């Protein structure tokens, strides 16, 4: 049986392992926390740092196929492993490009993939020379996630909020909708696309409120998004699963915001709502099996369960029983013992036929189910 190594043991790794349980594969996970969500679901757990060259090299040498569930990994070690003949999916070259927003944006520009126009800044002093570009969005090259590492700059007074490190200063798009498309690319280069999902944001927290699939956008927007994602993954030239976040502006133009070269939050709903989930799909790619069908069996909504503000400690799921009574509600608790404000603790997928019903159910879950300590 093939040995699969996963760098990172968070919830994405955990759900990948749940899908892996259906395949002839032996699973290994590298993570520095023995209580991480994936630790108890893999066959072999290795305690170590996926940012460390030696840890990744030693881990990778004992498996046949290596993948990631987080980008902040040691790419040098993955390059060595690839040279030694290991299958690394996605390719280390693509990981290097995507890992840093500066190189990621430059890649889009080079390959004529529509993305908001930008300049690169290295210091705050340099940033201050770009008053003519405001309003704009400043994004740190490395280390940002879930909105951290992104600053909206409306006026010169906001410059102090920017990053004193390599970053991109991006034109602010007048966003009508945010959507995401997941592409699956097999080892022979065949591509299938999941239907676009639509993000509904909480304007106060600037966090994803819930997500709907299919996205309710004009057919032309669907077509543009598909063409852009197709072009992008062809340019990457690597097998893997790629989640592409896109901004749709008020004129109906579509821009790539960013790409995650891995399974992604925007694809959780595919576990219950699609023929082949993003996790099942990635397993097929890693093991060299035919791709599954990305099509939806049902319309769906996805609600993230986020640690409530001002609660830290052993997690308690208030209102869980009410949600479990709802038809078509699928609860996923990630097995993180401790909750913290804003921490992703689980999600709920809701199946339904019409959008209004899904929005009502999503609200019901948001308001009724709280993660507290
Ligand atoms: P992260 O990697 O932390 O998720 P993103 O690059 O996705 O950060 O940006 C977070 C959010 O900021 C996006 O979901 C979007 O709402 C907003 N945003 C990002 N880039 C732009 C832009 N160029 N114009 C307007 N809003 C943007």
The fraction of residues assigned to DSSP E strands is 25-35%
Shape: globular
Q: Can you identify the CATH superfamily of the largest domain? A: ATP-grasp fold, B domain
How far apart, in Å, are the first and last alpha carbons?
42 Å
> By helix and strand content, what is the structural category?
alpha+beta
Count of helical segments?
A: 11
Helix content: 25-40%
Please tell me about this protein's structure.
- This protein folds into three domains: 2-88, Rossmann fold; 117-171, Dna Ligase, domain 1 (2-Layer Sandwich); 175-372, ATP-grasp fold, B domain (D-amino Acid Aminotransferase, Chain A, domain 1), CATH 3.30.470.
- Helix content is 27%, strand content 31%.
- The protein is built from eleven helices and 22 strands.
- Helix 1 packs across helix 9 (278-287), helix 2 (53-61) packs parallel to helix 3 and helix 3 (75-83) runs antiparallel to helix 4 (92-99).
- The radius of gyration is 20 Å and the shape is globular.
- The model has no long low-confidence stretch (mean pLDDT 96).
- Adenosine-5'-diphosphate (ADP) binds next to strand 7, strand 10 and strand 15.
- Adenosine-5'-diphosphate binds next to strand 7, strand 10 and strand 15.
Task: Summarize, please.
With 373 residues, this protein is an alpha+beta fold.
What layout of secondary structure does this protein have?
Elements: E1 2-7, H1 11-20, E2 25-31, E3 44-47, H2 53-61, E4 65-68, H3 75-83, E5 87-88, H4 92-99, H5 101-110, E6 118-121, H6 124-127, E7 136-140, E8 150-153, E9 167-171, E10 175-185, E11 191-193, E12 197-202, E13 207-213, H7 219-236, E14 240-249, E15 254-260, H8 270-273, H9 278-287, E16 299-306, E17 313-314, E18 316-318, H10 320-324, E19 329-333, E20 338-339, E21 344-352, H11 355-368, E22 370-372
Parallel strand pairs: 1-2, 1-4, 2-3, 4-5
Antiparallel strand pairs: 6-9, 7-8, 7-9, 10-11, 10-12, 10-14, 12-13, 13-16, 14-15, 16-21, 17-20, 18-22, 19-21
Helix pairs in contact: 1-9, 2-3, 3-4, 4-5
Residues 116, 137, 139, 144-147, 149-150, 170, 172-173, 175, 178, 245, 257-258 line the site of adenosine-5'-diphosphate (ADP).
């Amino acid at each position: 049986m093939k040995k699969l190594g996963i760098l990172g043991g968070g919830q994405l790794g955990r759900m990948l392992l749940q899908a892996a349980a259906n395949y002839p594969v032996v699973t290994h996970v590298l993570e520095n926390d023995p209580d991480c969500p994936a630790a108890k679901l893999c066959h072999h757990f290795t305690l170590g740092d996926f940012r460390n060259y030696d840890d990744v090299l030693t881990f990778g040498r004992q498996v046949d196929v290596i993948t990631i569930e987080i980008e902040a990994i040691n790419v040098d070690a993955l390059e060595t492993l690839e040279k030694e003949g290991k299958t690394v999916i996605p390719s280390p070259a693509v990981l290097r490009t995507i890992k840093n927003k500066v190189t990621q944006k430059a890649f889009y520009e080079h390959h004529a993939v529509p993305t908001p126009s930008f300049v690169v800044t290295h210091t705050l002093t340099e940033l201050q020379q770009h008053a003519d570009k405001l309003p704009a969005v400043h994004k740190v090259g490395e280390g940002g996630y879930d909105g951290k590492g992104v600053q909206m700059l409306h006026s010169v007074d906001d410059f102090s909020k920017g990053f004193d490190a390599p970053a991109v200063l991006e034109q602010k798009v007048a966003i009508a909708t945010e959507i995401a498309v997941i592409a699956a690319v097999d080892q022979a280069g065949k591509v299938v696309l999941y239907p676009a999902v639509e993000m509904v944001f909480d304007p106060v927290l600037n966090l994803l409120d819930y997500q709907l699939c299919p996205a309710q956008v004009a057919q032309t927007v669907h077509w543009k998004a598909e063409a852009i994602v197709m072009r992008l993954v062809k340019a990457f030239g690597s097998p893997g699963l790629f989640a592409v976040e896109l901004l749709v502006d008020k004129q109906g133009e579509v821009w790539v915001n960013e790409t995650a070269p891995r399974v992604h939050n925007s694809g959780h709903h595919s576990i219950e709502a699609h023929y082949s989930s993003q996790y099942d799909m990635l397993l097929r790619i890693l093991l060299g099996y035919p791709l599954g069908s990305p099509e939806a069996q049902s319309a769906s909504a996805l609600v993230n369960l986020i640690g409530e503000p001002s609660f830290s400690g052993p997690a308690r799921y208030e209102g869980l029983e009410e949600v479990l009574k709802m038809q078509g509600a699928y609860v996923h608790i990630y097995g993180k013992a401790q909750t913290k404000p804003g921490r992703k603790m689980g999600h709920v997928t809701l199946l339904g036929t019409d959008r209004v019903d899904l929005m009502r159910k999503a609200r019901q879950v948001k308001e009724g189910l709280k993660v507290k300590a």
